[in-house]
Amino acid sequence: MTPVDRFPTSGLEEDARARELIGSALAETLVVEAAAGTGKTTELVNRIVAVLRSGLARVDQIVAVTFTHKAAGELKVRLRQRLDEARQEAGGGERAHLENAIQHIEEASIGTIHSFCTQILRERPVEAGVDPAFEDLAEAEQRRLYFKVFRGWLERALDEPRPGLHNVLTRLAWTGTGKPADELRFAGWKLIGWRDFRGPWRRDPFDRDAEVDRLVALVTELAKGSERCERRSDELYRALAPARELVTWVARAGPRLDYDTLEALLIKLLRDLNRDKRKGRGPFGNGISREEVLKSREALLRQLASFQDQANADLAAQLQADMQDLIDAYEDRKRSTGKLDFMDLLIKARDLLRDNREVRSFLLKRFTRIFVDEFQDTDPLQIEILLLLAGSDEETKDWRQTVLAPGKLFVVGDPKQSIYRFRRADVGLYQEVRDRLLAGGARLLHLSRSFRAPAPIQECINAAFSGLMQLSLIHI
Ligand SMILES: Nc1ncnc2c1ncn2[C@@H]1O[C@H](COP(=O)(O)OP(=O)(O)OP(=O)(O)O)[C@@H](O)[C@H]1O
Ligand SMILES: [Mg+2]
């Protein structure tokens, strides 16, 4: 069983006990979960102060990360204030420790995870294989550089036969909402954001052309059935107009229609039929009942939806392969100008920590206490970096195997407020990491007392989110 803190006490007492432990259980790894405004950041600062006061670590051995520059700035200000207050109350050796911390506070590694990575790469550029004078690209510059690379790539790519690209452009021409080139550029940007997941994506067997033929036959059957309707004003008859149009198209263009176009037309048909699902009423037509037509429409919609899922997965894998050289071109351009983007900082720091034993050993000794705020927003690369650093061994390459150094790691988070879920962090990963930490000896604490929101609002938020949390667990 995981060592979850359970006291036979009221919520308020549990809360008070949790806060007490944060300041006193300095030899334990702690995972604190709490909702907004319960004082998570305040407790993180309290814990840093407690560690510094006790002399268990010096300020330059501390790493504190959060997820925006603004939050990091606030964290520094709060820490300075609390250190000052604590110094006034302390005596003897503790006072000396606190004074030392205040004097050297600028040496603390307090910032975003990206600034922390920049710091280690600057210290060990040779081992990390980066230009010692590298510049990190701000988000806007990164985008500008990518746009330029994309324009060049698209011109080249359109001159060559690329099945995935042809397919996606056809699809976008029929079903896209914006300009195909813009949508493609966005897809490339997404791929760049996932480039740490190397290797081709899985392609399940999918006989696309045979499926297309089968579905076109089904559409033709439904369209023909609908022609037997006696009233052209019948709602069901009108709702089936997109099916009849597709059949007309296919008949007119005949063999000139390639399978990419047919695939796009079928996916467009799914969307169009779903837009108008009226059933109409009364007798339908000559020798064909309304029920029969409705049943065929439902069956077709189900099959089109399943076709769309398979076609999308197949297209994504093809496109990933066809856009690989876009990612390479982007990487080359950065390299040749000595620039690193946000993800490079994470990848290079992770590689350095994971693969270079000497550097890892040095960093493990150098940083003895790690504090993470907003832990729910950590993405897979950040988790790797933090957990490799929080371990006690120099060899494990897999963050999942890392053995926690007791007391080294302190994380606070609110799994209900992951704002980066739509980027790369997600609640499933958070839960996996939390469970691993607990299995590795960490203690889980909850804070329940809120200093911001009145209780009814909080209860409402919790109730609204609990269903979503369950759902996300099912999807993992
Ligand atoms: N023990 C406490 N007693 C009184 N006020 C507190 C206490 N802890 C925190 N506060 C106040 O509550 C407010 C919220 O605190 P804090 O920013 O630490 O919460 P948080 O949980 O980190 O919030 P968020 O979820 O927004 O990050 C602050 O104004 C802080 O000063
Ligand atoms: Mg906070």
UniProtKB/TrEMBL annotation:
GO annotation (BP), single: recombinational repair
InterPro entries the record matches: DNA_helicase_UvrD/REP, P-loop_NTPase, UvrD-like_ATP-bd
Any Pfam family matching the protein: UvrD-helicase
Occurrences of domain UvrD-like helicase ATP-binding (ranges): 13-454
Cross-referenced PROSITE patterns: UVRD_HELICASE_ATP_BIND
Keyword flag ATP-binding: yes
GO molecular function, one term: 3'-5' DNA helicase activity
Residues binding ATP: 34-41
Cited Gene3D superfamilies: P-loop containing nucleotide triphosphate hydrolases
Organism superkingdom: Bacteria
This protein's GO CC annotations: cytosol; exodeoxyribonuclease V complex
Sorted UniProt keywords: ATP-binding, Helicase, Hydrolase, Nucleotide-binding
Protein's name in the database: UvrD-helicase domain-containing protein
Organism: Candidatus Acidiferrum panamense
